[in-house]
Fold this sequence. Notes:
Blueprint: E1 2-6, H1 8-13, E2 28-33, E3 38-43, E4 51-56, E5 59-64, E6 67-72, E7 77-83, E8 88-94, E9 97-102, E10 105-110, E11 116-121, E12 126-132, E13 135-140, E14 145-149
Antiparallel strand pairs: 1-2, 2-3, 4-5, 5-6, 6-7, 8-9, 9-10, 10-11, 12-13, 13-14
Amino acid sequence: MYLREISEINYKSSTLPVLFEDERTDRMFGIISNNIHSFKFGWQSTNIKPVVKEVSKEIYAIGIDQNFILIDLNIVNIKLKLKLFYFFYNLVVYDTFMIVITELEILIVSLINYNLLTSISLPELYENMEINGKNLKFTCIDGSYVDFNLNEI
């Protein structure tokens, strides 16, 4: 799998399927491919690159700006597509869960059926996360924090 940035001209002339785009605000463009299937997408942040992680064989998570998607590049199937309320920061795969981190919200996704299980609101901007077994602690920039137990899902 590879991610390659392309020009706006190449993006607009490409006939590849679109994962996500916003024609009004996108300034950066890219292609994700496994050399068999390819998709294009756009994003607005010029200084931030998309986060792309393989979560299982040929299933990739992509997050950038307010977009998040899980796609199976082997069978060309979108498992989950979310328009985020807040800007995407990162994602962590843990046990049978994917933890999607945005600036003011945490999303917990099942890696078994790829459903969004729950969302956790943060009182302030996200700073870091600690994992202790099934207990998660999300700390914010002002020192406040939110505890969450994955057993409660």
